[in-house]
């Protein structure tokens, strides 16, 4: 059976070590067990790696160590991804200040992910952005994706 392909934005990895939201931290650890077990095809981008490397130590190294525990494909942000990001900004679904978030969306679309997981509900995992992404994917003839908060993936039911 084919595994569901998901893109992880940096917040998902970051919340493995976030004591300010213990509920999200616990949920992220539960998800990580499924990722370690290989239940999904995981994609991240070089933007995610750059964001992790911009984190202070010791969190940076902890996050990099956790990435070593899962199997993932790293994609390089390219012109196709940046074109999608440009369209998202041009159409007003997100702003230029959200360029990396737009790149995450473009990366998920180009790599044929079904879901983009993010704890960023302000800019990404909300109905407005999801509606905008549906319009963009339709207009540009890409398969649709959905942006979810990790607990909305319902990964516990996919045994």
Describe what this molecule looks like in 3D.
The protein is α/β, with parallel strands linked by helices and 159 residues long. It has a single domain, classed as Rossmann fold (3-Layer(aba) Sandwich), CATH 3.40.50. The chain contains seven helices and five strands, in the order E-H-H-E-H-H-E-H-H-E-H-E. The protein has a five-stranded parallel sheet. Helix 5 packs across helix 6. The longest helix has 15 residues, at 22-36.
Order of helices and strands: EHHEHHEHHEHE
Strand content: 5-15%
Structural Rg: 15 Å
Question: How many distinct domains?
Answer: 1
Tell me, rounded to a whole number, the average pLDDT.
95
The amount of helix comes to 40-55%
Uncertain ranges: none
CATH superfamily: 5'-nuclease
CATH topology grouping: Rossmann fold
- Distance between the first and last residues' Cα: 12 Å
- Walk across the major sheet and give the strand order: 3-2-1-4-5
Largest sheet: 5 strands, parallel
Instruction: Please work out how many helical segments DSSP would assign.
Output: 7
- Helix/strand-derived category reads alpha/beta
């Amino acid at each position: 059976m084919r595994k569901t392909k998901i893109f992880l934005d940096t917040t998902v990895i970051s919340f493995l070590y976030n004591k300010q939201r213990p509920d999200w931290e616990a949920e992220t650890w539960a998800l990580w067990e499924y990722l370690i077990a290989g239940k999904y095809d995981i994609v991240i981008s070089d933007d995610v790696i750059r964001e992790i490397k911009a984190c202070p130590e010791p969190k940076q190294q902890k996050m990099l160590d956790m990435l070593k525990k899962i199997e993932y494909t790293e994609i390089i942000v390219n012109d196709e991804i940046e074109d999608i990001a440009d369209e998202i900004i041009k159409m007003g679904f997100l702003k230029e200040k959200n360029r990396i978030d737009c790149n995450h969306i473009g990366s998920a679309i180009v790599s044929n992910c079904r879901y983009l997981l993010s704890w960023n509900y302000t800019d990404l995992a909300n109905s407005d952005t999801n509606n905008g992404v549906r319009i963009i994917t339709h207009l540009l003839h890409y398969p649709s994706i959905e942006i979810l908060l990790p607990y909305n993936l319902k990964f516990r039911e996919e045994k």
